[in-house]
Fold:
Amino acid sequence: MFRSSRLPCLSAAGPRPSSTSFLVLPSRRHYAVSIRPSTVWPGKPEPRIFNERKTYLFNQFTSLLNRSSSRPVLFIHHKNFKADSLIKLRREITATALPKGAKQLSLLEVAPDPEMVPRLAIIQSSVFGVALRNFAPLDSETIQRIASMAHGGALAVITLPSLDPPVLQDILRTLEHAIPPKKREEEQPKQKGKGKDGDEEGFVPGRRQKRQKPMLDPELSVAGALIEGRVFGVEQVKDVSKLPTLEMLRQQIVGLISSPAVQLAMVLGEASGGRLARTLDGFKKALEDGQTTKEENTSAP
Structure:
């Protein structure tokens, strides 16, 4: 919880001596990734020194960006997600890379390497912004596009061990199914009224009624992806998920390259085999028949 700041409320005539009123400032937290250089304060050491937790997060985010050239990074927005829902979502995302028939990672005889399965991580935007602006391999335009993905809610990332379109498609499908259907207004629990027009069940005059927490619907959406140093939008990520696997593309390329050579070998094999021999025998017989006919014509009186 973030406490709201309170300042004395001043009117045009000045503060009232008999009563004290306060102006409540909004304490809304904005999830934004700032890539601007940090402010240099007099007496503060440069570069800035983080505590142990922020140093660990800074190194983790830097390693994430460094490995993005070979390991795609999927950015997602999450809102109103409880801890147990995030744990369940983590398990479902990890299960997308497991062999068919294996529902859980713990049920496998040999557990796979944690680095070889998709992983979901929550991003602390302030530290991620510092790691992003200090990451030299990315140009300023790419950094700006990545920073713009943080606008719209809390940010999380899903790292993939490699570019595997079927696994990416399964992850997108898992994210769609992770959001429960929104409840209708008539299904929302109504607060109990009081008085003659309201519901008097459980109402005690002079006693303040219990406040009911509003039912917040969880939200989850894909913001984009960083694949091989390039930023992809939502629609481009969907297009990438529909591509065939890299192994299938290699087989298709090998087939296209080898098919002309196979056809040429077949033609040469046929020409060097029985077809050429039969053709020469035909020419020989035709020449012999023509020569015999010519001799008969010359010998006739």
